[in-house]
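Bumping my old thread because nobody answered last time. Still need a sequence for this structure:
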């Protein structure tokens, strides 16, 4: 006990000596005051812009995504420029695959449900064709003739809703929840595909030198009318690509881990900025070179701001579409809608953001067509 007490006394004495010891300013480096013109710590800036290290898996995934994107563009781009029934066939094939993938979410994929759902979606997507044929009483071989407006058919929606709920009666495993999901996705996907047709076929009427004969693959009949759809697709593609690469290399702050764990605010801002700049430049250059994305009805000299507005709307709604379809996947507990495209998933995994982009772009363009003499025709828009 004596030894321990002596040790305690020695420690206390040493502590008191340290506390009473005068501090020499030359021995201790005091923190420097940071003024406006003082030098900043370089390590702080380095931490902010530090680039993420990519794992071997991330590099392999990136290569797979790039290769798949190149192959997909090699198929889609010629179909877009050729247009007419070639483009119609490619989009219809994508629609069939998309319908099959959506029903896979609920795991209620039967022959009857697939047929009902496809007819529901196709009726909305093809409604401008049916309406025009019934009104004119004849069939025109030029598919561009039918898609001069966008229509969300109320009658088709009501009939499709009845059939969706009828499935709950004949199938005990098909619940009301499944029927509501089918109805909502049929309207969204069907109208999205209708807008994909509209953005390609409508612009041909906006050029005075474009021909109206089918299978006339000329510059005036293929390239010029395709620029609006190409503009929207590239803007959407650059949003996804920019957000992906900026997020991979610089992403730190998560946007919504509940829906999409990998998306970051840095990627979102980077994707929007990159898309806005590149799509604006593309739209302006295309117009200057004689291929205005809005056709000859709107000239760049007076309405160049329309390109900037659309260049901002597309990436914002593309991001929203990506989140909406991601939330659907999280709800149903699936990683991808399909496995058709390596590194990207299924058709819906590639069309998720495009659906929202083409819908907002179609509404924007359709509203422009309803402006006459400086006034907006609400009656013509709300058809």
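Sorry it took so long. Here it is:
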């Amino acid at each position: 006990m004596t030894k321990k007490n002596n040790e305690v006394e020695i420690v206390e004495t040493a502590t008191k000596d340290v506390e009473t010891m005068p501090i020499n300013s030359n021995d201790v480096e005091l923190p420097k005051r940071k003024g406006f013109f003082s030098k900043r710590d370089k390590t702080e800036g380095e931490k902010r812009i530090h680039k993420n290290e990519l794992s071997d898996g991330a590099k392999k995934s990136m290569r797979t995504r790039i290769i798949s994107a190149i192959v997909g563009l090699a198929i889609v781009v010629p179909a877009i420029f050729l247009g007419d029934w070639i483009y119609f066939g490619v989009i219809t094939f994508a629609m069939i695959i998309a319908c099959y993938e959506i029903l896979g979410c609920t795991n209620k994929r039967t022959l009857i449900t697939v047929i009902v759902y496809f007819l529901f979606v196709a009726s909305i997507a093809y409604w401008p064709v049916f309406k025009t044929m019934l009104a004119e009483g004849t069939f025109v071989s030029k598919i561009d003739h039918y898609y001069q407006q966008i229509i969300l058919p109320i009658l088709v929606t009501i009939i499709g809703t009845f059939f969706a709920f009828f499935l709950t009666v004949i199938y005990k495993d098909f619940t009301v929840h499944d029927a509501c999901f089918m109805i909502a996705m049929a309207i969204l996907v069907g109208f999205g595909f209708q807008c994909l047709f509209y953005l390609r076929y409508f612009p041909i009427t906006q050029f005075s030198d474009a021909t109206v004969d089918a299978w006339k693959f000329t510059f005036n009949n293929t390239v010029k009318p395709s620029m609006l759809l190409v503009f929207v697709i590239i803007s959407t593609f650059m949003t996804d690509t920019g957000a992906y690469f900026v997020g991979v290399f610089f992403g730190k702050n998560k946007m919504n881990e509940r829906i999409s764990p990998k998306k970051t605010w840095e990627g979102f801002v980077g994707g929007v900025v990159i898309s806005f700049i590149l799509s604006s430049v593309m739209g302006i250059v295309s117009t200057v070179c004689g291929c205005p994305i809005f056709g000859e009805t709107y000239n760049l000299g007076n309405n160049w701001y329309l390109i900037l507005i659309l260049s901002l709307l597309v990436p914002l709604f593309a991001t929203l579409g990506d989140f909406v379809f991601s939330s659907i996947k999280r709800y149903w507990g699936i990683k991808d809608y399909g496995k058709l495209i390596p590194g990207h998933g299924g058709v819906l995994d590639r069309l998720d953001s495009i659906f929202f982009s083409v819908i907002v772009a179609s509404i924007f363009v359709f509203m422009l067509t309803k402006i006459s003499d400086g006034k907006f025709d609400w009656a013509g828009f709300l058809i």
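Residues 67-381 form one domain. Let me know if any region looks off to you.
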